Amino acid sequence: MSPPPLSILPSLLLCISLLLPIASHQQQSQPSNGDAGANATASGNQNHTAPRRGVYAREFLVAHNKVRTKVTHPPFGWDKKLARYARRWGMKRCGDCKMIHSYGPYGENLFWGALDHWTPTEVVESWASEVQFYDAQNNACSEGQMCGHYTQIIWKDSAKIGCARVQCQSGGLLIICEYDPPGNYVNESPFDTFAGGASARASAPTSASAPASAPASPTNPGNTVPPPVPAATTARKLTGTFP
């Protein structure tokens, strides 16, 4: 097979070199330093690589578990399979970085920022800020607001995460986090434990994911989605993914 034309190599290198590498699922819910590769710059120059291996993976995990601690839910563990899945989806999206879901078997949160300086902590805090729009008593988002990113983070049955960060060819940063088992089921609360077990939940009918909105801006660093559709008009699973 002949090598790819030189004209496409810069774009290919950009997609490959800037993804958050994969980290292993550790016994203590912490990725080790050697589990994730370096996060290189667009030029691929190793003299300008991101901090030591595992930093981004650990920061994603710590930021998520800080949110879960506030609702006394068990901490997430980092899972290399989920990280690989997020990484592969990022590979497909780095050319346009549109807020498009993978529609896979996991819960999925997406984030797009116009600049590339967003840290994992800032991204997770942006999702978690939706707590102000979540009405726990009625298990619903405030009218016209989003809260699905937050409820996925605190979903009690979700146990593992894996994330990737991609610097877009057109500029900006795309963040993808996967959650297993997924959350945001109709007629269920983030504080419930599903009695039917994972196999029963997996066989439940699902609805389409909520449509994505316009990309983020400095005043709206995350992405927005409509509030959850009333359960009476949807399938049992509202959505395992929120844009």
From TrEMBL:
Residues 1-25 form the signal peptide. Residues 202-223 have a biased composition (Low complexity). Residues 27-49, 202-243 are annotated as: Disordered. SMART domains: SCP. Residues 55-187 form the SCP domain. Keywords: Pathogenesis-related protein, Plant defense, Signal. One of its GO terms (cellular component) is extracellular region. InterPro entries: Allrgn_V5/Tpx1_CS (IPR018244), CAP_dom (IPR014044), CAP_sf (IPR035940), CRISP-related (IPR001283), V5_allergen-like (IPR002413). SUPFAM superfamilies: PR-1-like (SSF55797). Residues 40-49 have a biased composition (Polar residues). Pfam families: CAP (PF00188). Probably involved in the defense reaction of plants against pathogens. This is Pathogenesis-related protein 1A. It comes from Momordica charantia.
